[in-house]
Amino acid sequence: MPTASPTLAPRVALAQVPILELRKLDKRFTGTHALKAVDLAFLPGEVHSIVGENGAGKSTLIKLLTGVHVRSSGEILWQGQPAHIATPHDAIALGINAVHQEVVLCPALTVAANLFLGDEEIKYGMLRHRAMLRDAQEILDEIGFNLPAGAMLGSLTIGQQQLVATARAATRGTKFLIFDEPTAYLTRQEAAQLFALIRRLKARGVTIVYISHRLEEVFDLSDRVSILRDGELISTERIEDTNEEKLIRGMINRTIEQVFHKEAVPFGAPVIEARHLSGRGFSDVSMTVRQGEIVGLYGLIGAGRSEFVLSLFGREPATAGEILWQGKPVKIRSERDALKLGIALAPESRRDQGLCLNMPVGFNINLPILRRLTRGILIAGRPETEAAEGQISDLRIKTASRHALASSLSGGNQQKIVIGKWLNHGAKLFIFDEPTVGVDVGTKAEIYRLMGMLLKQGAGIILISSYLPEVYELSDTLHVFRTGKLVASHGHKVASHEDVLSQAIGV
Questions:
Q1: Are residues 443 and 416 in contact, defined by beta-carbon separation less than 8 angstroms?
Q2: With 304 labelled, which of 48, 80, 181, 317 sits at a CA distance of 20 to 30 A?
Q3: Which residues are CB-contacts of 155 (< 8 A; sequence separation ≥ 6)?
Q4: Exposure string (b/e) for 202-211, b if CB count within 10 Å is 16 or more?
């Protein structure tokens, strides 16, 4: 996702007395040592980033500090005194709040009602709706979020809902605020609003813990950065004493070149061709995807990229133009039509659209091929097990077993499940819409490796990404969308980053 240009945050002299200190903090679950005797101190008024792969212990650390989990051993000191954080109420009472990647507010209530949830304004036993609406709008305006207080939360984009969650956390007497992948669903403008708020909170003495896989944001905002790997603290350094290559090596023991590694695969015949295709949100788009080719689509939110691929997948049928599949005209009126042809979609929102979270990992992986695994009215046990276990092994999905619920896995491993189920399906065209949102650099490298495997097997790939370095480095052909139209096309790394971004913005 594009973010505000990386201008380093002004560095200030930091007080040396920690607001929060961890001493040998340890957390064990059944069969898992999630956090291993971590010693770490957070200073007042600093932005302290924490980086690491999925499964490194970041989420466990957040849950310990916010009272979701209780530590197995070790100490937490708050302003120099031992603190017992056993529930979320304990954390909030101290002034510790968190803004999570997945919004956990009430979509059926207004923005104002969500801001004051649990702290409603009441007079004579009645809610003061107008006063809450007025006060909420003042809060949003004061912190620089361009949001309507009277709108229903569910009517907003995921990114806007994230900003509401941020506003709520920032206005609850917070002294210590944790952000977990806060820009995953934000537009460039929304990210800039968030960064401005973080800097204002920091200036007021609020300690910010910033967890992100986007290293440019870490360097933009941070005073210090800590690396977690396999539950252990690897290092803590001031931001000016490190660089992106050192952070990546500390997280995954790989170089930055290995993360974006792309093998050259010879192109074959066209898999799909769109000729002057139009539909809801896009018009007159023509492009071809060949065997062994990654075709990248770049543009700002609402530029028409996702709408275009949803038309190829039959979710939003085209209104004009034609589609050729392996050289022959076809009509794709539904997702069933697309699946029969061999088109697979890994959607942007894996939790809402790509997975059955309350079902086991194995079920999710085998979902597209259950008909193939069925004997009469029963699913054949051994083939089902072999198909699921094979993908879990090949994709290195970190799970206790194929019976574990998909909801119990990290975001990166959930994304691997989404990819794995389509590998079982044997598709010829894979559409990846924001495939690495919210996953770490190690998992990104694995996803890119999987893409290379698909290309070698003769598939074609459409890659949609709002993260320009990703789509720029990986695409054999890069198409730029703006206001529903394809406005520019480039060969592999022919245009500069600046050219592509200018075309997407229209300047």
A1: yes
A2: 181
A3: none
A4: beeebbbbbb
Question: How far is Cα 478 from Cα 481, in angstroms, rounded to an integer?
Answer: 10
Q: Which CATH architecture has domain 20-95+174-253?
A: 3-Layer(aba) Sandwich (3.40)
Beta strand extents in 121-243 (DSSP E only): 122-123, 126-127, 176-180, 207-211, 224-229, 232-238
Both tokens of 376, joined, read 């009469």
Contacts for 287 with CB less than 8 Å, ≥ 6 apart: 273, 274, 295, 477, 479, 486, 489
Domain boundaries, the chain: 20-95+174-253, 110-172
**Tens-digit pLDDT profile for residues 167-180:** 888 887 889 999 98
The pairing of strands 429-433 and 460-464 is parallel
d(CA 271, CA 5): 37
**pLDDT tens by residue, 355-369:** 777 788 877 777 766
Q: What is the DSSP string of 325-377?
A: ETTEEE---SHHHHHHHTEEEE-S-IIIII--TTSBHHHHHHGGGHHHHEETT
